[in-house]
Amino acid sequence: xxxxxxxxxxxxxxxxxxxxxxxxxxxxxxxxxxxxxxxxxxxxxxxxxxxxxxxxxxxxxxxxxxxxxxxxxxxxxxxxxxxxxxxxxxxxxxxxxxxxxxxxxxxxxxxxxxxxxxxxxxxxxxxxxxxxxxxxxxxxxxxxxxxxxxxxxxxxxxxxxxxxxxxxxxxxxxxxxxxxxxxxxxxxxxxxxxxxxxxxxxxxxxxxxxxxxxxxxxxxxxxxxxxxxxxxxxxxxxxxxxxxxxxxxxxxxxxxxxxxxxxxxxxxxxxxxxxxxxxxxxxxxxxxxxxxxxxx
Length: 296
Known about the structure:
Blueprint: H1 4-9, H2 18-26, H3 33-43, E1 48-51, H4 58-71, H5 74-78, E2 90-93, H6 97-114, E3 120-123, H7 129-137, E4 142-145, H8 147-153, H9 159-163, E5 168-171, H10 181-196, E6 201-206, H11 212-219, E7 226-229, H12 258-267, H13 278-290
Parallel strand pairs: 1-6, 1-7, 2-4, 2-5, 3-4, 5-6
Helix pairs in contact: 3-4, 8-10
């Protein structure tokens, strides 16, 4: 792999392995500057705190060093049928098990399209015991988990064998953990991992925060993690959905506007509907489903 300075000043496709560069090109994308800077820093052995807005490619930036390193591994160069040794390369830690599962699912697309023999699995409270046991014996290349599950794994007798070859630790939504009890639990886990796999670099991913230095010290207490800041994403287009329906005096929770909401969803390729409570989410879904004549 090139030196960090070479990566930062090269064109995007020149700084990536051929399989990864082809994937970006097939999507009509070019790597963001903060993605390449994160890649360069980890290639130089540094830990990184990446702060970028939602939709700015933070998660891909966190996994890009792992994809690049695993793509350059001998087994990957030998082809998809090559046998990979059982060693955990990347540990991803999320405050939410649902986020870990979602990220694992989303990772399958670039890995498959790049043709890389990389295994990705989750370890949450929902993971069957048989799979947990197998993961200890034959771990995947990338394991996505939560602070609580990490604490449990660190209690095993074979912890050093499981994490001994670890090369990368990615912590998502870091701002949601620092300063909380779960963050204290994770800090203990990171300290233990620092003893077991001292060469493992750490990448913290966060949205905009007021005091990034606090997150940098948390991420790497013994030194300063490099701060990488992503540029703002596309400017938002803000509009108010104007409903022609009569608004009830109380208890409507937006129900009067569901027809207009459904029409707006039809006009979009992808839509997210935010609500305030779990019960409201269920009601909105059921109401939109009854209106779903287009089989969205």
